[in-house]
Write a structure and sequence with these properties.
about 525 residues, alpha/beta, Alkaline Phosphatase, subunit A, eight-stranded mixed β-sheet, four-stranded antiparallel β-sheet, about 30% helix
């Protein structure tokens, strides 16, 4: 068949008129792009986890049908992402606090090596001093490493500990472009049962919707970059193309305190549906009695002079006390419910942001060649161990949401991986995908590509976390978990996570588990003592 020059030009003209969303970018042999989604303080909660043994939603909504409905209200878009990727159900942060978790994830250097084990007053990670040095001053971040090798890197929202200035976001060292997209739904009104030590309520009047919220505006901006190839916030323009791989990062602040949400999301979680009872509070209180001394400093559990479990001090205890002051009869339980309502609505904010990002990617020419990585920087206690917030090495504080949709392995869409992994595995996973070596021998993570290829394959690495001090650490295998305080093998918690996922019964010192305990201690010592060697079972 011979095509005349006139017909050829006509075909080209018609092709040019086709909408860009019908084009699929495909560079044979090139690595996938990366859409990097960070969510702050997101507990392993919602539809992905609600039927897992010991999940907190089962406590709040014991009726399975109601629980399923509430979970769908909360996280339909996280479920949507889970359905297209692999969910790592035993994933852990490097440290259960924003600053050390994010610094470790972004540099690949774990807290026990950097010394950055707490929020440290919000200090910029490169300026943090430990033992007279600044261990992370010259560390290479993941976006910095990609940028050095020709990638376009751009960010809005909270990726490092703070997101309100370019310097705190690591500036041009990590990012080609950066902006802090603003947004607000209106005035904030504090709710009745919110104590002084915590803060939750409604943002905007009753007609305001989540679309105006700060987080959603950031997600909308990144979605437009994906769909349209570029977007401008004030004087900053993000621009991507098929000619250069990109790493687009969107940091979502919710459900971090303060828990302010719009009325449309608060109405999804009426307190009348919640089965928060006196019996549940008493059950959680009885969790005291078998913990090392240091553990009591991290929660609201305590023991009285006779060794009996009782309520101690914690921000969660503040909720209970404040509620009783406002309402003699069950005011403590009502305060607990109101807090949960606002936290769940804040989780729904994060979910809607994920949905907007997925919409943008799926309407873009990059949907078939973009890896989506979603993570929460740590977990969150909502009354377990009578504790509110993170800052513990129990699963409620240290276990995280971690999902990867990898276009190289579409056959595993919707699968779950139970192998223990950590967020410090992200750096080597992305670097290997990009064909890059590690820039620093201190990077300890493991490339997760084998699990993305086969989520059920045998896996040797365990998960390790640190908090508050390099002497407080946790090690997690697929079945067991050990927490050690002060580097003291007598200050131990040991849990069988298959039989006791809520970590009620400390098995440390039991004769039938002596060999297991000793093995876990050896594994933890190896993890802490050999900087570049993977933790082996």
């Amino acid at each position: 068949m011979v095509v005349s020059s006139r017909n050829w030009l006509a075909c080209c003209f018609l092709l040019a008129l086709l909408p860009v969303t019908n084009i699929r970018v495909s560079a044979e042999g090139s690595p996938p792009n990366v859409l990097f989604i960070a969510i702050d303080d997101l507990k392993t909660i919602g539809s992905i986890y609600s039927e897992d043994p010991g999940d907190f939603l089962q406590r709040v909504y014991p009726d399975k049908a109601l629980r399923a409905e509430v979970a769908r209200r909360m996280t339909p878009n996280l479920q949507r992402l889970a359905d297209r990727g692999v969910t790592f159900t035993s994933a852990y942060c490097a440290a259960p606090a924003c600053n050390p978790s994010r610094a470790a994830l972004m540099t690949g250097i774990r807290p026990h090596l950097s010394g950055l084990t707490t929020n440290a007053g919000g200090v910029f990670f490169r300026e943090y001093e430990y033992e007279g040095k600044r261990p992370l001053a010259d560390a290479t971040t993941l976006p910095e490493w990609l940028k050095q090798h020709g990638w376009y890197t751009a960010e809005t929202g909270k990726i490092f500990h703070t997101s309100t200035s370019f310097k705190a976001a690591d500036g041009h060292r990590s990012w080609t472009d950066w902006t802090n997209v603003p947004g607000s739904a209106g005035e904030r009104v504090r709710a009745k049962f919110s104590p002084k030590s915590l803060d939750w309520g409604q943002e905007g009047d009753d007609s305001a919707t989540f679309h105006a919220l700060n987080d959603y505006q950031k997600a909308d901006f990144i979605a437009k970059v994906l769909t349209e190839g570029r977007a401008t916030d004030r004087e900053t323009t993000f621009a991507i193309s098929a000619d250069q791989p990109f790493f687009l990062a969107c940091g979502i602040f919710r459900p971090h305190l303060p828990f302010y949400a719009t009325r449309d999301l608060l109405d999804l979680f009426p307190t009348e549906e919640m089965a928060i009872t006196r019996e549940l509070l008493e059950e959680f209180t009885r969790d005291a009695g078998d913990l090392p001394d240091q553990a009591y400093k991290w929660c609201g559990l305590a023991v009285d002079a006779g060794g009996h479990p009782t309520i101690g001090k914690d921000r969660f205890v503040d909720i209970l006390k404040h509620g009783r002051k406002l309402q003699d009869r069950d005011g403590d339980l009502q305060g607990w419910k109101e807090m949960l309502q606002h936290y769940f609505a804040s989780c729904a904010i994060a979910d809607r942001c994920v949905g907007r990002l997925l919409d943008g990617l799926e309407a873009s020419p990059y949907t078939d060649n973009t890896m989506i990585i979603l993570w929460s920087d740590h977990g969150y206690h909502l009354g377990e161990k009578l504790h509110e917030t993170k800052f513990t090495l129990w699963d409620d504080g240290a276990r995280v949401n971690f999902l990867i949709s990898d276009p190289r392995h579409p056959q595993n869409a919707g699968k779950r991986c139970t192998r223990p992994v950590t967020l410090t595995d992200i750096f080597p996973t992305v670097a290997a995908m990009a064909g890059l070596d590690m820039p620093d021998p201190r990077i300890q993570g493991t490339d997760l590509e084998p699990l993305l290829e086969n989520p059920d394959r045998a896996w040797a690495p365990a998960a390790q976390s640190t908090y508050q001090s390099v002497a407080h650490n946790m090690i997690r295998t697929e079945r067991y978990k050990l927490i050690r305080y002060d580097d003291n093998n007598e200050a131990i918690e040991l849990y069988d996570m298959q039989e006791d996922p809520e970590e009620f019964e400390n098995l440390a010192g039991q004769p039938n588990l002596q060999s297991t305990q000793a093995k876990l201690i050896r594994m933890l010592d190896e993890a802490l003592g050999k900087g570049s060697k993977a933790v082996r079972q």
